[in-house]
Amino acid sequence: MPTSGVEVATDASLLAAQSSAVDAIRDDALLSSSLWVNVALAGVAVLLFVYMGRNVRSPRARFVWGATLLIPLVSISSYLGLLSGLTVGFLEMPAGHALAGEEVLSQWGRYLTWALSTPMILLALGLLADVDRGSLFTVIAADVGMCVTGLAAAMTTSSVLFRWAFYAISCAFFAVVLYALLTEWTAAAADAGTDEIFQTLRVLTVVLWLGYPIIWAVGVEGLALVESVGVTSWGYSVLDIFAKYVFAFLLLRWVADNEQTVAAAGSTLGTAPGDD
């Protein structure tokens, strides 16, 4: 079929936007380095985690390992998307924003990454703690809602009020996740006999995840107290390094050394209600 002039113009505009984004990233050494470091670390993490899981045999432990392996796999794809200009773009900040009328480079692809990688983190933690299906579904659903409304907050350019409204909703979803990690899931881990490692991972997750909304609030997308996109990007990248790769390493090392404990913790996800 012949291509219409509108389609050609749209394609050209999209290519130009990606090219401009790539140029902006390349010209900002701080921004560029914050992305390439994570590509390298995610690649190393994938290879390391494959090696660490080579001798894992029990179905439950392999389930945990598979969920954890997806974390760096999603991350490396995401960071390549940012570097290629595919998942970044320039947005004009609305009236009332500290940078009103200015175009800001938005790394909106990060939210897509978090919507895919953070559920894997929670799935691994839920399996480790042997939580019930209903709780696991609710917490993961809240997590996805947190990421999607965070994306809405970052992408809304019509009103600064709507940006902060989406931010508040995202934080409300986050509160659901925090509540489960700090109460119900902690108790379940104690019953499952995995509370020692769960406590460590819980603290790591809660403390680091609290950093994301703080960076949003003080960075270019929020109050713009920090106007450097590169500094903001490094803030997110450092959090990703510890919340994803360090978290996954600690979890997989423990699972590899305590496979029988994981296998004996129960089979909440694989057993019908009432089965033993």
Automatic annotation (TrEMBL):
Record's GO cellular component terms: plasma membrane
Subcellular location, principal: membrane
Pfam families, alphabetized: Bac_rhodopsin (PF01036)
InterPro entries recorded: Arc/bac/fun_rhodopsins (IPR001425), Rhodopsin_retinal_BS (IPR018229)
Membrane topology reported for the UniProt record: Multi-pass membrane protein
Keyword entries, A-Z: Cell membrane, Chromophore, Membrane, Photoreceptor protein, Receptor, Retinal protein, Sensory transduction, Transmembrane, Transmembrane helix
GO molecular function: monoatomic ion channel activity; photoreceptor activity
SMART domains referenced in this protein's UniProt entry, alphabetically: Bac_rhodopsin (SM01021)
Location in or out of the cell: Cell membrane
Any GO BP annotation: phototransduction
Membrane spanning residue stretches: 29-51, 63-91, 111-129, 136-155, 161-182, 203-225, 231-252
Family as reported in the entry's similarity comment: Belongs to the archaeal/bacterial/fungal opsin family.
Name of the molecule in the record: Halorhodopsin
Source organism (scientific name): Halobacterium jilantaiense
